[in-house]
Amino acid sequence: MIFNAQGLILRSIKYKESSQIIDVYTLDYGKQSFIVNGVRKSRPRFSSACTQPLNFVSLEAYGPISKNIKRVKEISLLHFYKTIPFNPIKSVLGLFILEAFQKCISEPEPDEKLYHFIYNTLTLIDQPDQELKHIAIHFLIHFATHLGIGPIPILKERTHEGIYSNPEEIVLTEEVYQYFLVLTKNIEISTISVQPISKENRSFLFNALINHFEYNIPKFGKLKSLNVINSIF
User: Fold this and answer.
1) E strand intervals along the chain
2) What architecture (CATH level 2) is domain 84-232?
3) Which of 112, 129, 142, 167 makes a 20 to 30 Å CA pair with 188?
């Protein structure tokens, strides 16, 4: 049985002398694992980019789908990034989003809306003139909603001190509260008009959202990219 799939490469690890095993979040089959033979040979059949995390690929593989690791027959890039590989800030942002995404995706359950959400987010970052400083927070808010753990913003004046009054709530000052609402109401960040907000307040919301994920997703843990993202945005 041969089947077709498209998806985002979440992880790639070396296997034996010349092969790679890749975890791919696919449109039709959710998270799946594949082996790509010979990709690390001196004259490989496929470009090495086809096994690099963050890339979207189209592939043919030998089934059945239920098999733990499927062997790839053909693989090619589905989307060619124009700026992410050459812009260090965009690369860091893309890898942060990928790391957070794969921490929360473990089951081979397809979710068309979630797939298009991650595709749209990464391809938006790749746009040449795209404003970047709001994207990480926008991603976390809407990703949490997709996962069924969407945070509830609460004005600080209406509750006690601290970030949380319960696991679903994030306690925010007026400025951050309004910023949160703007990002929440707009699924397409490219159309958002955001009022100026200080880096300190933006950082507070970002870290509150990270805490929200850590609390609600048991395997989320500490992200390797967290300190770098905080220093940049």
Assistant:
1) 2-15, 19-26, 30-36, 56-62, 69-77, 152-155, 169-172
2) Up-down Bundle (1.20)
3) 167
Characterize 210-226 residue by residue with b for buried, 16 or more Cβ atoms within 10 angstroms of its Cβ, and e for exposed: bebbeebbeebeebebe
**pLDDT confidence of 18, banded at 50, 70, 90?**
confident
Q: Where are the domains of the chain?
A: 2-77, 84-232
Q: Going along 2-131, which residue ranges are E strands?
A: 2-15, 19-26, 30-36, 56-62, 69-77
Q: How far apart are CA 105 and CA 92, in angstroms?
A: 20
Q: What is the DSSP letter of 152?
A: E
Beta strand pairing call for 19-26 and 2-15: antiparallel
Fold of 2-77: OB fold (Dihydrolipoamide Acetyltransferase, E2P) (2.40.50)
- Round to whole Å and give the CA distance between 134 and 176: 12
Q: How far apart are CA 121 and CA 27, in angstroms?
A: 15
The answer to whether residue 162 scores a pLDDT higher than 50 is no
Tokens 């995706």: give the residue: 105
pTM: 0.89
227 CB neighbour count, 10 Å cutoff: 10
